[in-house]
Design goal:
This is Gfo/Idh/MocA family oxidoreductase. With 363 residues, the protein is of the alpha/beta class. It has 2 domains: 120 residues, NAD(P)-binding Rossmann-like Domain (Rossmann fold), CATH 3.40.50; 179 residues, Dihydrodipicolinate Reductase, domain 2, CATH 3.30.360.10. Helices cover 31% and strands 23% of the residues. It is built from 10 helices and 15 strands. Helix 4 packs parallel to helix 5, helix 5 runs antiparallel to helix 10 and helix 7 packs across helix 10. The termini are far apart.
């Protein structure tokens, strides 16, 4: 077979999301931000930059809420309690940006106040908490979505499209990692057991949900790892086996002790896809075919959103998905459905069982 010449392409999302790379997201809903920390700031900066409406912020400390408001002057209201935010009749949807250990409590309370919610990943500490939130959303017919923003990025949408149409054949292996060096500090949220700290919920959720998106649920999980002095996990690896008749495997590694390449490779019978660092953020990727030809996909998202806080950008895509679903009267996203959130929580529960650690308050 004659090899193709290397080709470089720019691409748009494969699905029809309201935001198309360099377009503005529609100002159709008034967002409330529950929490005033780093991830809340990242999300807000990108939604505002894309044209969305962050209308209010709630914090347990009024001064912190007001400081957040000063950072983003377009925010009209600052509340010194989460309850104040939830009770605001002018808020259409709430983004929950608290530490993991608080997701369940405030997600339940937001739903009890009839507010649709976007809950930062990992969705909860465990499967049971996640199921309780989703059961309440079903009972009240309210929208809920996990904020796994990677699924909504243009390059991931394109990768999924290529895999689904058989571009690289049957998937045999997926290899992905997410290691970030956080010097040990027992007061840091990542090492705090009372905040459900550890590598799994903070870092591991990225490659785990990525693989679940592409391959579904594994039939067998093998997990190994080690703990930090505070007892939370800090250096983990896992093998996922899939009973799809092809013997597909996923090889994952993540941790808080060292920086890793943070890349991903999807290997199939006709070729492979390699996603550059950092695979879970807007990135480029290359398809390597068995005949020696290659096809490189380039994303213009870098140019338009690289000013995101600490280099974190692209979160407006998930916000646009929430707005699209609300406008269409949907209670869940087809890209990040409830069943996938529950499946990822089950996977992480099983890994914790094998690693033999629990979060505060668990029995």
């Amino acid at each position: 077979m004659k090899s193709m010449e290397n080709v470089k392409k720019e691409f748009l999302p494969a699905r029809s999301f309201p935001v198309q790379l360099d377009e503005k997201m529609p100002n159709t809903h008034r967002w409330g931000i529950l929490g005033s920390g780093w991830i809340a700031s990242c999300f807000s900066s990108q939604v505002i930059k894309a044209g969305g409406n962050i209308a209010a912020v709630g914090s347990r400390d009024l001064q912190r809420a007001q400081a957040f408001q000063r950072e983003f002057p377009s925010i009209k209201k600052a509340y010194g309690s989460y309850e104040g935010l939830m009770e605001d009749p002018d808020i259409d949807v709430i983004y929950i940006a608290t530490p993991h250990a608080q997701h369940h409590e405030w997600a339940m309370k937001c739903l009890q106040h009839d507010k649709p919610i976007l809950v930062e990943k990992a969705f909860t500490q465990n499967y049971e908490q996640a199921k309780e939130i989703i059961d309440l959303a079903k009972a009240k017919n309210l929208f809920v979505m996990e904020a796994y923003w990677t699924r909504f990025l243009p390059h991931i949408i394109k990768v999924k499209e290529l895999i689904d149409r058989g571009e690289i054949g049957d998937i045999v292996q997926i290899i992905a990692d997410h290691g970030v060096c956080f010097p040990f500090d027992p007061s840091h949220r990542l090492y705090a057991p009372e905040l459900a700290g550890g590598a799994l919920l903070d870092l591991g959720v990225y490659p785990i949900s990525f693989v679940q998106f592409l391959l579904g649920n594994p039939t067998r999980i093998i997990a190994v790892g080690s703990a930090a002095p505070t007892g939370v996990d800090s250096n983990d690896a896992a093998i996922f086996e899939y009973g799809n008749g092809k013997g597909a495997l996923a090889l994952l590694a993540f941790g808080s002790l060292a920086s890793s390449p943070v890349t991903a490779a999807i290997c199939g019978t006709k070729g492979r896809i390699e996603i550059q660092r950092q695979f879970y953020r807007p990135s480029d990727f290359t398809v390597y075919y068995n005949d020696g030809s290659t096809l490189e996909y380039l994303s213009k998202t870098h140019e338009h959103y690289e000013a995101g806080r600490d280099g974190l950008f692209g979160m407006h895509f998930e916000a646009a998905e929430v707005q699209r679903c609300l406008l269409e009267g949907k209670v869940e996203s087809s890209v990040m459905p409830w069943e996938d959130t529950l499946s990822v929580m089950k996977i992480m529960d099983e890994m914790r069982r094998q690693l033999d650690f629990k979060y505060d308050g668990e029995t």
